[in-house]
Write a structure and sequence with these properties.
The protein is of the alpha/beta class and 272 residues long. It has helices spanning 54-68, 97-105, 131-140, 149-153, 193-206, 227-235, 252-255, 263-271; strands at residues 2-7, 18-23, 27-34, 39-47, 75-79, 84-88, 111-117, 123-130, 145-148, 161-167, 171-178, 181-189, 215-220, 238-241. A 6-stranded mixed beta sheet has the order 1-4-3-2-5-9. Strand 10 (161-167) and strand 11 (171-178) form a beta hairpin. It is globular, with a radius of gyration of 19 Å. The relative contact order is 0.16.
């Protein structure tokens, strides 16, 4: 297990910040925040190694957090597994949704399937999550809300074309809207910058979008002076970082980092 960031919660004894937990088979993120007015209090990001026993690694993280941070308000659990399918309302047949997931991703016996509304009223998200991981998290926290990240990232977009890429350490998530309608949301693993570029260009090709004429919005673990950024900028002439506002950071350590590192987490926290 690798700790990417460990910015302790900046809070007083009388505060009980909410906790957002986003977990996948690649890692887990924790974001502490006050809901109203919205203010980020702390953030931890951990990656699972290939040889990690995920439940054991997560148990150590949870035990460490609970021993050092006693005052927690509502807990919001979000899954970020790739195994997620967006379904139009007309095709949302509850008894068939498990079959759709298995058709797309194969069968798994220790996973549960769930369907929920997205932020758009005519779209549903069917996804699955590991039962043992869900039970582990539920033993450590009383979960207030449970969802999939994709359900909260889908929203109305005013741009004619909106191409958004969230960069994780071993994966990316691409979200494409055109004319205000969702065209695609998909997660891909990668090992080198060429992989990221391929998936973005392939997404554009599938929907007849010209990369040079399209603004690529970025957030996550990418910096301007990196090989990945240069690769992308060679093909997308308009690249913009999706930054959080400085005013919502209640922690100096977060404010001193590039303001796009945790944008997707703050976007999710605003929606729960």
């Amino acid at each position: 297990m690798k700790t990417v960031s460990n910015i302790p919660v900046n809070t007083s004894e009388n505060e009980h910040p909410d906790l957002l937990i986003e977990v996948s088979d690649l890692g887990v993120s924790f974001l502490w925040f006050n809901k109203s007015p919205f203010l980020v209090k702390g953030v931890n990001v951990h990656l699972f190694d290939v040889n990690d026993q995920i439940n054991e690694a997560l148990t150590k993280i949870l035990s460490s957090i609970k021993s050092s941070i006693l005052n927690t308000g509502h807990v919001h659990l979000l899954y970020n597994y790739k195994e997620s399918v967006i379904i139009p309302e007309a095709y949302n047949l509850e008894n068939d949704n498990k079959d759709i997931i298995e058709l797309m991703y194969g069968s798994k016996t220790t996973f549960s399937t769930r369907t929920e509304k997205t932020l758009l009223p005519n779209l549903y998200n069917t996804y699955r999550f590991a039962d043992d991981l869900n039970n582990l998290l539920s033993r450590h926290y009383t979960v207030t809300t449970q969802s999939h990240s994709n359900s909260l990232l889908i929203k109305n977009e005013s741009d004619e074309i909106s191409l958004y890429c969230i960069v994780f350490y071993d994966a990316i998530k691409i979200i494409l809207h055109q004319g205000g309608k969702l065209l695609n949301i998909q997660q891909y693993t990668y090992s080198k910058p060429d992989d990221v570029l391929y998936h973005l260009l392939n997404t554009c090709r599938q929907y007849d979008i010209i990369p040079a004429d399209t603004t690529l919005k970025l957030s996550g673990m990418i910096i301007r002076d990196s090989l990945l950024y240069n690769h992308l900028h060679n093909h997308f002439q308009h690249v913009r970082f999706m930054e959080i506002e400085k005013e919502i950071s209640g922690n100096d350590e977060i404010s001193n980092l590039p303001l796009h590192f945790f944008t997707h987490l703050t976007d999710l926290a605003r929606c729960v």
